[in-house]
Amino acid sequence: MKHIELRDLNVSRIGLGAMGMSHGYTGAGADDAESVRTIHRALELGVTFIDTAEVYGPYVNEELVGRALKGRRDQVVLATKFGLISHTGRPGPTDSSPENVRAAVEGSLRRLGTEHIDLYYQHRVDAGTPIEDTVGCLAELVAEGKIGHIGLSEAGPDTIRRAHAVHPVTAVQSEYSLFTRDPEARVLPVLRELNIGFVPFSPLGRGFLTGTIRSTDQFDPTDFRADNPRFTDENFQYNLRLADQVAAVAVEIGVTPAQVALAWLLAQGDDIAPIPGTRRVARVEENTAADAVHLTDDQLARLTGLPPAAGDTHTESQMRIMER
């Protein structure tokens, strides 16, 4: 597995998103033992970058990751996120007040079974707390040794600049894939100007780009894709046709559509470390093998030239707390 630098943080260039092991998808959390095996297999394959968050579950995903990393903590760069749960009782969808940050980090450290979080992200920008106050608190946690690096998730250019002026930001995490190209115009140029790494989540379009989703009947009511605009009505059928074009490139190479989608992302720069999520050993083996997939210039051009996916990436209420 090749490695890259997120600013000055060395990580495998393909990481592992743990969310779906406990949260969000059909059957999530159904087999914790398989999820632990998946994490262990990822480490064997050279993955050193594991991503979770307190809100996944909530809490149980951090606990699961903590169990899986017991005795193996020194093998990984461990990332988690705060801000979508308020420990202060403040109403609203986000809370990044210094009081909440300090309460959140103590809980995450305990659940993860560690004394140190390598990369600590603000999960969504908090309109009720100046980013300078939040990052000032995070800088104190760096000085105290509780976290190593500061990250932001779904933050726009102005927020990134203001945060970075207080303390260097190591990485920004946003949705980015062949289906979601939003960061290219506004966010990626700022990150490269400031030497901040980029961590794409949902790099497989929430499963669409794997070629395995052919019907919304595959989702049970607890699956968060059931009301996602990209998976409803005519949007679903349109996006299936785009996924089929990715699958066609995969046939040319003799690999899987998921590997093509990840290889395309890796070709976008050596400052990008996607975190495809899975809870199955076979999938983590498939995803990590994308590190060795080579796309020709023609294939890259055809994939890059695909039209945008139909439908928003999130529901209307979720979109309101995202910056792009």
UniProtKB/TrEMBL annotation:
<dbReference type="GO" id="GO:0016491">
    <property type="term" value="F:oxidoreductase activity"/>
</dbReference>
<dbReference type="InterPro" id="IPR036812">
    <property type="entry name" value="NAD(P)_OxRdtase_dom_sf"/>
</dbReference>
<feature type="domain" description="NADP-dependent oxidoreductase">
    <location>
        <begin position="13"/>
        <end position="305"/>
    </location>
</feature>
<protein>
    <submittedName>
        <fullName>Aldo/keto reductase</fullName>
    </submittedName>
</protein>
<dbReference type="Pfam" id="PF00248">
    <property type="entry name" value="Aldo_ket_red"/>
</dbReference>
<dbReference type="InterPro" id="IPR023210">
    <property type="entry name" value="NADP_OxRdtase_dom"/>
</dbReference>
<dbReference type="InterPro" id="IPR050791">
    <property type="entry name" value="Aldo-Keto_reductase"/>
</dbReference>
<feature type="compositionally biased region" description="Basic and acidic residues">
    <location>
        <begin position="313"/>
        <end position="324"/>
    </location>
</feature>
<keyword id="KW-0560">Oxidoreductase</keyword>
<feature type="region of interest" description="Disordered">
    <location>
        <begin position="304"/>
        <end position="324"/>
    </location>
</feature>
<dbReference type="GO" id="GO:0005737">
    <property type="term" value="C:cytoplasm"/>
</dbReference>
